[in-house]
Design brief:
homodimer, 3-stranded antiparallel β-sheet, 11 helices, 10 strands, DNA-binding
Chain lengths: 237, 237
DNA sequence: TGCGCTTTGTTCGATGCCCAACAGACCGGA
DNA sequence: TCCGGTCTGTTGGGCATCGAACAAAGCGCA
């Protein structure tokens, strides 16, 4: 039943046969509904999410209701790794950015599996490192780059996560993730549209010119990709 | 010989007797010289640093030579935890912000110890989480808060790390960490000086009014402290 | 087909920060 | 005591983004 989830999620895919067998009996399917909050900052993480499609953002809530994104994962990763490696308390909020399905494993099962397998722990830890990479690259990017560069970076990353040129997102939502005004996004987006890099209408953004977008993005996009390749490109220790 | 290092560094302090004994034979002392680079992004981490005093910044290098800080640790933490938990490759650059001493453990010894002790792994992992907390809070902060708020937050954090109101730092250096112009720091700093929150001269900043600084800082400072307290306040699993 | 809500577009003044250049002050070393 | 380099102060123009308010258009739903 969950063999197909293994081929859909990169984390499950990367596991050795024996590590996968530790988790397989405990895998369940859940729907990721848009805007659903999977866990809260300081709250308990009750399960680990292995998205099969869609996207999950990890965000920092700020006083005043604003939130800013620190990183995102889709089928290229997992969400909730700390539940397996430590206590099950979240240091951020997880929000469904684009609806989809995920395979999940309850916290008790994943902790028990992690206790048994060092290679599973390493695999989990790599995705935690990958979130750190995103968060710190965002910190640098948000401090120094323009809204246009940051928007391009973010669209490119979303495209990679969703593995589709078609991004079901509103400008309002994007603005929140970037920590800028919605009108700034509208302004920049219309420039990108005019340059034929993207097109969009009411909650649907579509990437038209991948190379062009990359040229307009800051180095942060490539920086993340190269770190991702390095981290996942080999199994460690 | 290294019993005193145990009392000086909070990580070593927090370890159980048996975990500490795993590391004790391998502890060595090193000097942390100002501006020394302990490891590079993508480079090997050859040892874990447990500062006894001074401060180490974890930074993201950007093309063009700029760097932006993602987090910092002093005797309140450790630097290089990933070396023990995964392959020994760094996802960021570690730079000595304020000179001092550190106890260090070579990568082979720490990996071997981590393989033997789950509680040691958990302890190491907590400091990795703490870096994530700093990085993602910085991402949010850099996106939405003013230079004044960010400077105050940063000074407060430095003060906590150094456990001193006296911060041996130049405005140029601070500006780099925050990802802003040096002249912006000068401008804001002189306002803080006028308000009698700080005083300074050529590379020496001194906190005069702690409460006042906290009032001028954004919520991000308190947000980090509360997460730190939560993460370290109890031993997990 | 039409209504209403959501999303996007546009204006415009305000402002915070950039950017570059230079002046002045401090401090250590000769 | 003077000199040179590092650090801080100051200027002023320019631009990106904010902030708030309102207009227009698209889409779902009845």
């Amino acid at each position: 039943m969950h063999q197909n989830s293994r081929s859909a999620n990169r984390f499950l895919q990367s596991l050795s046969h024996s590590d996968f067998e530790l988790l397989a009996p405990h895998l369940r399917s859940v729907e990721l509904r848009h805007a659903a909050v999977l866990f809260e900052t300081g709250g308990e993480i009750d399960r680990i999410y292995c998205p099969l499609n869609g996207a999950i953002s990890l965000v920092v809530p700020l006083g005043g209701g604003d939130i800013v994104e620190a990183g995102m994962f889709g089928r290229d990763g997992i969400v909730g790794a700390p539940a397996a490696l430590d206590s099950a308390t979240a240091v951020n909020q997880a929000v469904v950015q684009v609806q989809g399905q995920a395979s999940v494993v309850g916290v008790a099962a994943i902790q028990s599996a992690a206790r048994q397998s060092a290679s599973l722990r390493t695999a989990l830890y790599q995705y935690d490192q990958l979130l750190l990479v995103q968060a710190q690259q965002s910190a640098a990017c948000n401090a120094t780059h323009t809204v246009e560069e940051r928007l391009c970076r973010w669209l490119l990353r979303s495209r990679d996560v969703l593995e589709s040129d078609f991004l079901p997102l509103t400008q309002e939502f994007v603005a929140q993730m970037l920590g800028v005004r919605r009108t700034s996004v509208t302004l920049v987006a219309s420039r990108l549209k005019e340059a034929k890099l993207i097109k969009y209408r009411r909650g649907r953004i579509e990437v038209l010119d991948l190379e062009g977008l990359q040229d307009s993005a800051c180095e942060c996009y490539r920086a993340f990709k190269s770190q991702e390749a390095r981290l996942l490109g080999r199994t460690a220790v």
